[in-house]
Design a protein that fits this description.
Elements: H1 2-13, H2 29-37, H3 41-53, H4 61-73, H5 77-89, H6 97-108, H7 113-125, H8 133-145, H9 149-159
Helix pairs in contact: 1-9, 2-3, 3-4, 4-5, 5-6, 6-7, 7-8, 8-9
């Protein structure tokens, strides 16, 4: 029963892609585009988010991946996590679980709870890494300690098995 519940929660919530932000921050979309094109990683991330969600601009996963990658390469953990999710789901890029896990890990190691949750899910499901309950618990615990409720739920379920 517990395994079914955990599987349901993982399938229901999936991996957490979005770090909530937009190009508002006192800027309109054109300001955001200009700052992203000037090489500012935060605005590259915001522009990627806008393209991923269709907020302020037409949804375009390829452009989202392009801008997330620029920001991720500059070390932005939000962009690393969101780009990982695009790779995991094959949105705007070819589906690649191993690349998704690599990006989740980069973000998770910077203390980003959503990436830690996603890495826990990857270890639990075996997508992109060898299935490993101990590692899943480790990453769910880290995310839960940062206040991630989904990770806390999964951690409780795994520890009560």
């Amino acid at each position: 029963m517990m395994k079914q519940l955990l599987t349901f929660l993982i399938l229901f919530f999936g991996t957490v892609s979005l770090s909530f932000a937009d190009c508002y921050d006192g800027n309109d979309i054109n300001d955001c585009i200009q700052k992203a094109e000037q090489g500012q990683p935060y605005y590259q991330y915001l522009l990627g988010f806008s393209y991923e969600t269709g907020r302020d601009i037409r949804k375009d996963y390829k452009k989202a991946a392009y801008w997330y990658e620029k920001s991720a390469n500059a070390g932005n953990p939000n962009a690393q996590n969101n780009l990982g999710s695009l790779y995991e789901n094959g949105q705007g890029v070819s589906k690649n679980y191993k690349k998704a896990v690599k990006l989740y890990r980069l973000s998770a190691e910077q203390g980003f709870d959503r990436a830690q949750f996603n890495l826990g899910v990857s270890y639990y499901t075996g997508n992109g890494v060898k299935k490993n309950k101990k590692e899943a618990i480790k990453w769910f615990r880290r995310a839960a300690e940062l206040g991630n409720k989904d990770a806390a739920t999964n951690l409780r379920i795994l520890l009560n098995k």
